[in-house]
């Protein structure tokens, strides 16, 4: 009898996931900030946000196909988006999040890439999307701003 | 001495046998997921992604996300809403998101690609467990499984006696298994 109870407990453990918040699915740590920063405000003056914790909200427009280790969130302004990068395996965003709304908390970070690093990053991204890599799209060193995500809630 | 050795071997066999039974399920999950994840660069182990292209003769640069344009695009590729959202990554592209499809319209080329993402249900769940996405209590189960594999390997060394055991053929095969990763690391220069 005790053996069966232990077995049942183990099986239940396997089915357990982090409890989702009231609406949507939580990925990573619970959100602690309440004030949403518009993505356009971050992109207008990114240097002033570097190192700052922010809460952003937007439509998920792309997700890392290989490992779910990043997703792009549409800005509140046309033609703009920002990347949410998480540590590989710590948070895994599902591809099915595309088209859903995400509320993400994280810290703004800057990436200063040399020409070679930018070339490699573009090659990697093309590979992830199964696209042919065009090296002429990279013209020199690049500075990119993104959010190091700690937690996200994704809703339908 | 002889009786002590016999008792020790009985325990070794019992641990190897029973732990082996317990580990069958998880070994299958981790094995299947391991093969799938090894080939992540060539093949998506979690999702089946299909992409089809359709001409969209009515697409134009002036088309926006309002005025029913996304719905008109969907009609031309044989899909219908509800539209979850739209996005313009640049002035020549419109993306329309549906629950199971993403439609990307090249407004210059007047072509739409329809991407469908389907979850590989069993493999997705196996990968989820293998990569410890649930975290929490599952971490302890995965740790216990890893330790069990170590114990299975250790007890496995002493399952057989004589020329097929660890003092005979077993020593060569065990050495081969240890050498394999060492040689590969040396070749890679890591």
How are the SSEs placed, and which strands pair?
The complex is a heterodimer of chains A (156) and B (190).
Chain A: H1 2-15, E1 25-28, H2 39-44, E2 53-63, E3 70-74, E4 81-85, E5 101-113, H3 115-128, E6 142-155
Parallel strand pairs in A: 4-6
Antiparallel strand pairs in A: 1-6, 2-3, 2-5, 3-4, 5-6
Chain B: H1 2-38, E1 47-55, H2 69-76, E2 85-90, E3 93-97, E4 101-106, E5 111-119, H3 121-130, H4 137-156, H5 169-188
Please count the helical segments of chain B.
5
Shape designation of chain A: globular
Q: Level of helix content of chain B?
A: 40-55%
Number of helices of chain A: 3
Report on this model:
The complex is a heterodimer of chains A (156) and B (190). Chain A has 156 residues and is an alpha+beta fold. Chain A has helices at 2-15, 39-44, 115-128; strands spanning 25-28, 53-63, 70-74, 81-85, 101-113, 142-155. The radius of gyration of chain A is 18 Å and the shape is globular. Chain B has helices at residues 2-38, 69-76, 121-130, 137-156, 169-188; strands at 47-55, 85-90, 93-97, 101-106, 111-119. Helices cover 50% and strands 18% of the residues of chain B. Chain B is of the alpha+beta class. The model of chain B has no long low-confidence stretch (mean pLDDT 89). Chain A binds chain B through residues 10, 13-14, 16-18, 59, 61, 65-68, 74, 78-79, 81, 89, 92, 94-96, 98-101, 127, 156, and chain B through 40-41, 44, 46-47, 49, 84-85, 87-91, 95, 97-99, 102, 117, 119, 128-129, 131-138, 140-141.
Tell me briefly what this model is:
The complex is a heterodimer of chains A (156) and B (190). Chain A has helices spanning 2-15, 39-44, 115-128; strands at 25-28, 53-63, 70-74, 81-85, 101-113, 142-155. Chain A is of the alpha+beta class.
List keywords for this structure.
heterodimer; A: 156 residues; alpha+beta; 5-stranded mixed beta barrel; 3 helices; 22% helix; 33% strand; B: 190 residues; 5-stranded antiparallel sheet; 5 helices; 5 strands; 50% helix
């Amino acid at each position: 009898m005790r053996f069966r109870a232990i077995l049942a407990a183990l099986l239940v453990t396997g089915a357990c996931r982090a409890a989702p918040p009231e609406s949507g699915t939580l990925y990573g740590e619970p959100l602690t900030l309440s004030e949403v920063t518009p993505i356009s405000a971050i992109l207008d003056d990114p240097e002033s946000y570097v190192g700052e914790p922010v809460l952003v909200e937007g439509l998920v427009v792309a997700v890392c196909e290989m490992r779910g280790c990043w997703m792009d969130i549409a800005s509140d302004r046309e033609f703009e988006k920002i990347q949410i990068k998480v540590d590989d395996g710590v948070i895994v965003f599902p591809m099915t999040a595309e088209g859903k709304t995400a509320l993400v908390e994280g810290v703004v970070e800057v990436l200063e890439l040399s020409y070679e690093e930018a070339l490699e990053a573009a090659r990697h991204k093309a590979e992830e999307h199964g696209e042919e890599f065009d090296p002429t799209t990279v013209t020199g060193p690049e500075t990119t701003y993104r959010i190091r995500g700690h937690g996200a809630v994704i809703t339908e | 001495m002889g009786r002590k050795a016999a008792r020790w071997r009985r325990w070794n066999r019992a641990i190897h046998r029973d732990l082996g039974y317990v580990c069958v399920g998880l070994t299958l999950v981790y094995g299947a997921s391991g093969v799938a994840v090894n080939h992540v660069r060539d093949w998506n182990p979690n999702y089946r992604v299909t992409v089809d292209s359709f001409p969209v003769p009515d697409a134009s640069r002036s088309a926006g996300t309002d005025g029913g344009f996304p719905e008109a695009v969907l009609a031309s590729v044989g899909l219908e809403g509800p539209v979850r959202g739209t996005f313009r990554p640049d002035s020549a592209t419109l993306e329309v998101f549906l629950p199971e499809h993403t439609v990307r319209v090249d407004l210059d080329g007047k072509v739409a690609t329809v991407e469908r993402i389907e979850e590989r249900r069993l493999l997705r769940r196996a990968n989820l467990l293998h990569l410890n996405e649930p975290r929490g209590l599952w971490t302890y189960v995965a740790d216990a499984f890893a330790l069990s594999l170590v114990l299975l390997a250790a007890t496995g060394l002493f399952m057989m006696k004589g020329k097929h055991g660890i003092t005979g053929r077993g020593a060569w095969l065990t050495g081969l298994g240890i050498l394999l990763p060492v040689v590969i690391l040396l070749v890679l220069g890591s």
